[in-house]
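Submission sheet (multi-component)
Chains listed below:
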Amino acid sequence: MKAERKLIALLAVAALVSIVNASVFVYYPITVSLQPTQPPIIFSKGKNAGGQDLYGNTIGVSMGNANTSLTITVHPTYQTNYYRNITVIKNQDSKAYYFKIRVTDAFTDTKITNAKLRIYNSGRSIDIWVYLTSTGDTPSDSWLGPLNANEKWFVDINITISEAGGSPNSKPSLDDNSASLQLIYSPQDAESAP
Amino acid sequence: MRYFFFSIIFLLNAFVLMLSLHAGIFTYYPVSVFLSPVAPPVTFAGSGTYPTFIGSANTSAVVEVVANKALHVYDYDVGGRVVVLRTVTQSLTSGGIFSIQWVAFVTNYTDPSGVGVILQEIQVNIGGSPYYVSIYYYGGNQVYFQGPGPTTYVYPVDMSVAHVLNITVSRPAANRLRISYYVDNSLAYTYDYSIPRRAAVTVYSVEGGRYDTRNAYDLYVDDVRMRSVTGVITSEDFEDGVDDFFVNSYSSGNAGKVVVYYTFPKIFLLARNNDTKTYACKLIISPLTAPVIASFYVRNSTYTSTSIKIKNSVIVGETSEVLLGGGSYTYMYLNITAPLTASLPITFNLQFVYRVYDSDGVTVHYPITVKFG
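Outcome: structure written.
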């Protein structure tokens, strides 16, 4: 009889514990609403986009439909090749924005001894080089800017290819001929970009 | 208590507002850069003038310029003068020949009064009266052959480079005097004069520079060769650092003569356009500090660029552009002077820069190193 009481007590405790750990789900409503806007920052073609490159080629600059992606194709030879004003970064908003460039896939061919992209404004108060031979952010711990309302920045590219092992009758042979970047912008310059 | 409550509410609102102002909004646009290399449309070739080492793709060059010595005749004073002179005093009889020859280059020429500078001259005394047979320069691309009479013959010649000048005085017959002017070993002009059969003709002196004070210039003279009336050759190349030839020279003011390290304007490198398109090209020099006077320039078949100018430091850092047509060449020139006290070699770091004509979309830079000395 005493054992029965103990068993009942244990069952009661077990039942109580199961009630305490019962799955209780509480639902709060959260609404994520997307209100797309036109891009405040766009790429546009620079003065020399589509212009003459070496050996009758064309300086290739193409953008996506919304001018929010950019592909540049140039035709350098040995030594230093400087491409001037081939792309423009334009702020079509009434607010200022801050920028940085993230190189996600760098040129790794050692024959490319220097590859850099230059971003500057018309007064050259903004004038920065982005090295395309290593990954990372430029500026690394700050932001470039601001790019003020309706202001434009210009983009040049400088490519140096070593002539070591090269020939005057053949083009430089490159194992890696592409680099990938991201143009990152934000209306603030207080936080780092993830 | 009520004041405290509203303060807390205010601070919370301010915090939320700050959060919204600095909200982390980051937008990422993808960018791709592709390189599609091409063979060099323009390549270097050696000029043969100096030892030259060209890179494997013919897109870089190291040029070793020999630092010869020459006589620098300078007049930097429109109130001063310099005449480099050697007295000869040799009798020119019938059948006799006398000649003087040297390499001359004149630069930095200023002459507001138009008095000219004498690149080469022989004073001949005929019957006791002095006559001068001369090669004058008054600027531009011509020289003037001055005979013993009033006549002058204008001879067009490119004065951006040095020339071998020679005046030969001969007496083919007792009553004939012939003056022959040679430029770069080619006969350029001849005067023939009748003289009294019994006239005494004396070659009195050879000289260069200008007695008149009203101009300023740099005149470089080298490889002097004088043939006396008896056929004796006297030569002077100044390589010992001493002028043993113009021993009777005189000067006043900021003018004089000095033996210097020198190279006359010469082609030191060629560039060939392998493309069918036209390119525009020029030279650029890096900053330099050295006891040197130098100039570099570019020429095509018809046009000479402006010069890079160096006088102890870079005064003008780049040339103007010249066009380089499809399949054609452009020629790079240099002209360097340094005092004998200079520490050699002096290294010049240049860039040959070209772009597609009518476009500044792409410029290509090839390195050139010039070692002088």
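Remark: Chain B touches chain A at residues 21-41, 43, 55-60, 274-277, 356, 358-367 (CB under 8 Å).
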